[in-house]
Amino acid sequence: MTTNPYLDSGPCFIQEDEERRLPPPSRSDVKPQYVHHVAPKPPPEITHSAPKRKTVKQRCVKFTVAAVISLLLLLLVAGVLLAYYFSSSCVHGRQCGDGSCVWESQWCDGVTDCRSGQDEANCVRLRGSSFLLQIYSTQSKNWRTVCSHGWTEQQGRASCQHVGFTRGTYFKSGQQQTESDDGYLMAKSDFNPEASLLQQLVLSKTCPNNSAVTLRCTDCGTGVNSSRASGGQPASLGAWPWQVSLQVAGSHRCGGAVISPYWIVTAAHCVARTSSPEDWAVYAGIVDPLGTLFNPAYSVSHVIAHEGFNWVTRRNDIALMRLSKPLDITASSNTRPVCLPNVGVNITDPQKGWITRYSRSVNGDSSSLHLMESQVSLMNTADCNSSITHDGRISQDMLCARETDAVANVCHTDSGGPLVSLKDGVWWLIGDSIWGEHCTEQNKPDVYGNVTYFLDWIYHQMRKHQDV
């Protein structure tokens, strides 16, 4: 029997009508029917083993990253410290000046450890107007005065050589009572002239009578026969015995100052374009045109301009000349050195000073050469750098001084001449003339190189060319 699929599905079409006709079933007629419910999937079983492994792994990764970062930071810090150490190679010592360094204990120990000898160069100095001898002690790391007990002239000559003077210029040793809270240095009894002086001194807490050594490496700082008038006027013979005339081809080029029988201080711009020693002749004891007829010409062996000299700014405008043979300072009082300023000799404004320079315009005669003297007043740098004077051009290696009574008819064009000052009975060289503007601007002070600033450079050059 064939089944009609459409008839089988009929109730599906008439169900709604039948439901409308049939009465609602009673509560008793309702039978429970099984209703198929699709059970939801059970929640995944929570296991703690997998997350634990994941957490440990994450911790390991984090620890590794932190360790790597820490290591990189440590390497960075180490690199910075190494860079600082190598760029500043003397963290635990002193620098030689050529990039190398030595230990603190090697400084001034009497043994040359730096290639150029810087460690043994500045170990001896003279202090104050009494020329008190002081030596740097590597044991105590400070400057000590030297006890005169057992001190000899031989040791005095050796000390002057350490400063930069030649043995032949040595003048004398003396004594001065001086209290020293830090103690003294005392010379050993068995002095060995072949050994370094620095190795023959021992520390001492006491000194008999507190008598310390004073040292004069050359007979300097005495002047005579000057009228010391305040205004500019011709200088008398012997008044300024350190003044010299530096000449090229028989013509005066610049002035200079004698600081030892072998050495002359002048300005760098005087010699920068004529640096050959053979071109120069030095005349001492000249105050007028006849001076060259009665005084010998001294030849020059070395002309040394400061390596940092700048033509535009006039920075480091200082130079030295070394004579082939020493000036004879014993034959006449007209020739004698001026003293370089010792440590502790502070000459500042409003201290008075004196300048000497050669002028070609005295009494209208432009062809003659006369030495002129004038008193000046030192000025502080701030005033000299004001807008109405030199407007910031003055640096720490310069000094300013204004003439107390400038002479209007004298045009000061001389350079290299000395600026000196008298203190405690000694004449000190404090400046060298580097530029003046009297010809054009009467109100501006003259400018000088600051010799105190260049002291180490001067002594270094003297030591370097000591035996040539």
CATH architecture annotation of the largest domain: Beta Barrel
Quote the CATH topology of the largest domain.
Thrombin, subunit H
**Biggest sheet record:** 6 strands, antiparallel, barrel
Question: How large a portion of the residues is in β-strands, by DSSP E?
Answer: 25-35%
Tell me the radius of gyration: 46 Å
Distance between the termini: 147 Å
Report the strand count. Answer: 22
The parts where pLDDT drops under 50 for at least 5 residues are 1-22, 30-35
Helix content: 10-25%
Overall mean pLDDT score? 83
Oligomeric state of this protein: single chain
Category from helices, strands and their pairing: alpha+beta
Order of helices and strands: HHHEEEEEHEEEEEEEEHEHEEEEHEEEEH
General shape: globular
CATH class of the largest domain: Mainly Beta
State the CATH superfamily name of the largest domain: Trypsin-like serine proteases
| Side-by-side strand order of the widest sheet | 17-18-19-22-21-20
Number of helical segments? 8
Count of structural domains: 3
Features:
468 residues; 8 helices; 3 domains; Thrombin, subunit H; Low-density Lipoprotein Receptor; globular; six-stranded antiparallel beta barrel; Mac-2 Binding Protein
Notes on the protein architecture:
- Residues 1-22 and 30-35 have low confidence and may be disordered.
- A hairpin with a 2-residue loop joins strand 20 and strand 21.
- The strands form five sheets. A six-stranded antiparallel barrel has the order 17-18-19-22-21-20. It has a six-stranded antiparallel β-barrel with strand order 11-12-13-16-15-14. It has a five-stranded mixed beta sheet with strand order 3-4-5-7-8.
- It has helices at 5-8, 10-21, 49-87, 153-163, 268-271, 291-294, 381-384, 455-464; strands at residues 93-95, 101-103, 124-127, 132-137, 142-146, 172-177, 184-187, 201-204, 211-216, 233-234, 243-248, 251-260, 263-266, 280-284, 298-305, 319-323, 352-359, 370-379, 398-403, 418-423, 426-435, 446-450.
- It is of the alpha+beta class and 468 residues long.
- It folds into three domains: 89-120, Low-density Lipoprotein Receptor; 122-216, Mac-2 Binding Protein (Roll); 233-464, Beta Barrel (Thrombin, subunit H).
- The protein is 19% helix and 27% strand.
- The longest helix has 39 residues, at 49-87.
- The protein has eight helices and 22 strands.
- The protein is globular and about 105 Å long.
